[in-house]
Amino acid sequence: MEMYQAVILGIIQGLTEFLPVSSSGHLVLFQHLFGLSEPQLFFDISLHVGTLLAVALIYLKEIKGMINAFFKLMVSVFKNEKTSDILATDPDARLFYLIVLGSIPTGVIGLFLKNYADTIFSSITVVGCMLIITGILLWVTRKRTDTHLLIKDVSPKKAFIIGTIQGLAVMPGISRSGSTIAAGLFMGLERETAARYSFLLSMPAIMAAEFIGLIDGFSTDFNINSLTAVGTATAFITGYMALRVLLKIVKKGRLHLFAFYCWAIGILAVFSGVFF
Known about the structure:
The protein is mostly helical. The protein has one domain. It has 13 helices and no strands.
């Protein structure tokens, strides 16, 4: 891999991890474009770490609140107190609880589909089809105007459904952010609440996926070099900017505008996969 390829892949990861256009799908397409037939495990993991840090920086206040809420819940358990009272009155505890619930189906589905990852992630045609589906999901969000639910109003059932959607987004071409934000909007979540829950829910999923990747790759030769450092830094910077932009777009109710891009790239990918 050349330095310019590391920079481009870092930019692609940073932009597409948060913009609702599927980062995994774009990485597959660009790896094929660059002729990188074998995925470079540690480099890919590093790119995801870069975007994970971007989420952590933007939602630092919420993360600190959830950490404090976790210890508060643990203390209540040791004292044999009702945790339900804390979950009902503490918004940080409620958010932590909903993220744990949402992460359960994500983990189960992710582990199940992991066995098929090599086949799924190698098909440009599949990526194209999934991008078209992502476009459809984004397009129908334009009709959702009655979104008003806040975190305190989100039921465990809604959290579980959104977590399930996130698990299915392991399919390259299905945007994780786009599908989970759309799911939140369909269930009545206020726009900023849907986005906040989506990105905070992504953190345990990304960390778990990268941890599993590291375990699976212990037999490989990890090489921390300038390419890895540059790619990670690029993913962090572009990811931070992309997330800021997307939050403004979601707030204005313009998420559906990304549908046109997904359809265009999806059709090109299908055409390329079928005829080349």
